[in-house]
Amino acid sequence: MVLNALGKKFIHNEEGLVLMAYLCPANVWTIGFGNRYHLDDTPVTKGDKITLAEANNLKFQLQKINLMRSPRSVTTSELQVFLVQRC
To answer: What DSSP letter does each residue of 29-75 carry, written as one string?
Structure first.
């Protein structure tokens, strides 16, 4: 998955910046600009903190979302499907 500049800007604006792990609306620990994983691929957990520099390094790791991971590690609760009906 490749995210263009407009997509990156959208995520940056929508997610905002949080330097301490928080539970997102999907009940998943998240940090930085909406990241669920650290650069070393470990999941974000309660109590995790990062610096602004680390958040900027993670910023575009959003391209590597759960769907890019091995299929065995993806659960149905991690999937989002958007449907568009065309007439």
So the answer is: EEEETTBSB-TTSPBP-TT-B--HHHHHHHGGGGGS-GGGS-GGG--
Is residue 25 a part of any domain in this protein? yes
Per-residue exposure over 34-51, b if at least 16 CB sit within 10 Å of its own CB, e if not: bbbbbeeeeebeeebebe
CA distance 4 to 18: 23
Task: Read off the tokens for 81.
Answer: 């499907």
pTM here is: 0.61
Decide if 36 is inside a domain.
Answer: yes
The predicted-structure confidence for 21-62, as pLDDT tens digits, reads as follows 999 888 999 999 888 889 888 999 999 999 999 998 887 665
- DSSP secondary structure letter of residue 77: G
How many independent structural domains does the chain possess? Answer: 1
